[in-house]
Design brief:
Elements: H1 2-22, H2 28-32, H3 38-57, E1 60-62, E2 67-68, E3 81-83, H4 86-116, H5 121-139, H6 150-171, H7 175-234, H8 239-252, E4 258-262, E5 267-272, H9 275-278, E6 291-292, E7 299-302, H10 304-307, E8 318-326, E9 329-338, H11 346-405, H12 407-427, E10 433-434, H13 435-452, E11 457-463, E12 471-472, H14 477-488, E13 496-504, E14 511-518, H15 547-560, E15 567-570, E16 576-583, E17 595-599
GO molecular function: ATP binding; phosphorelay sensor kinase activity
Membrane topology: Multi-pass membrane protein
Subcellular location: Cell membrane
Amino acid sequence: MQELTILLLQRIALLLLCAFLLTRIPSFRYLLDWEINVKTVLSHSAIFGLFGIASTQAGVIFDGERFYSGLWYTSLSGDETLVSSGLVAVVIAGLLGGPAVGLGAGCITAGYTFTLGGHLIAASSLVNPVTGFLAGLTARFFSQERVISPFKALFIGMFAPILYMHLFLIFSPRPEETIPFVNAVGVPLVVSNSVGIAIFTAVIRVALEEKEREAAGETRRAFKIAETALPHLRQGLNGRTARELAELLNRELTNVAAVAVTDGERVLAHAGRGAKGHGEGGTLPREEESAGIGETGLRMVSGHERMDCGRPRCPLRAALLIPIFETGEKVGQIILYFQRQQQIRPVEIAFAQGLEKLLSHQLDMIAAEKAKALLQEAELRNLQAQIHPHFLFNTLHLIATLIRVDPAQARRLIVHLGAFMRSSMKLASSSLVPLEQEEQQLKAYLEIVRVRFRGKLDIRYRREEGIEQVPIPPFTLQPLVENSIQHGLKDISDGGLVEIELTRDRKDKRRLQVVIKDNGKGIPPHILPTLGKMPFPSPGGERSGGMGIYNVNQRLIRLFGEEARLCFANRPSGGSIVSFQIPCPVSDERNRGEEVTAHVD
């Protein structure tokens, strides 16, 4: 029994070699990810079936008296029985590929076993498809595991030879002769098969994990390099940033001979060996004679002639050319130099492809950020252009009038106008400002309005304490107040009222609610549904009316979402209401109300 166990375990070595080779088949990963289709089932049934046939051939023959092995078995006599590890391949097929693959591999192995003949041929043939199918059904309980653990496989592998022994006894015409055989081979077969299955799964797990760890390591390294290179790339590709990037890559990539950064036409920086021929002012590899790799822009150059540096003793014999794209346009290139072409392994190629995508994506993000900043600045400038001209001209006209009748008031008005213009320029540099800064601009505007509409307009301003630092988009409050004064109170000669309230929402203290009311003529019903959503035709026919309100609404939505959009309504007693809500940090201090009422004399 001991000798038979050792002999069967020796045969398992063949399966371990097969397991290692199996992990090198690319399509094998689809099987492990349970991406099973007809092609996968047929191909892997054939692969595991061939493993089963090989394991069967590596078995031991029992002729009723002794065990012996041969080089190749073509047929067995009526009193001979083949004891092999063919069940190992069939069980593994079921565990990895499910019932379909297990049944397919079992049928192929069973068909070959049937052609050999021998004693108890029915049991030897039937056990393979049955075992493969049952192993596949069992694997469904562990489908969350990519490869079943060796410990579980060890116990599952015990049932296959036990079933084999039971079938021997069921199909045996002479049980008295079969029982001694089962007693002799039962334990060695159980031990060798279960250990073989466990080792088989362990080999597959280790091989795959090692390969995936290596790929993950290269990915992490590419991310790390790309992240470290980002501050340099933000400053643009020039001599200094190129030198820092080249030194960074040369330091991190220990298996490359040198690194160069170019603008596509000339070398901006070089770090490593071969600087005399390929450094700044040196030559670039002949890209027109390079070979493309994959679907990206990565290319490879090899050979002394194609390196084209003119130095016969140049140590650089191969290179990977990594293009750098920004918004689809090639803006530079990173060159990884090697001393021999054989040093360019799949790992280096995968790293280079990942680095190309990461750097290009980061440059696209930087370009998008710059475009966003320019767009934001343009929006603010556009909003300022909407606010300032007519307001400035009216104010200057008022100052010119006051200079003759009330010079002191004219001086005060000039001071308020300067404060308004100064705060406007300060606000234009940020996308969000503290509420107290936005409030300064609004108060400067209200002081000017107080003089312009003396005795005709009353403005009431209420702001809850503790919300001074709430971030708000600049040029938000003043355009809304101006809209109420210029349009809502346009035809009101006396008794105009504008109320401004800034408070935390009663239901949700994390929201700041801004409400602006007037007692004017209200918003025309045909404009109300689209106000703030799009500019509407002005009296001149151009689609520019309501541009200030539209800009405020769009910036609120872009920064805080749909919940921050402007809401418009007409008051039953006359006039209109415009309101919006933005996020507001919750303060631990007790909120108190502050009401400021400005009466225009």
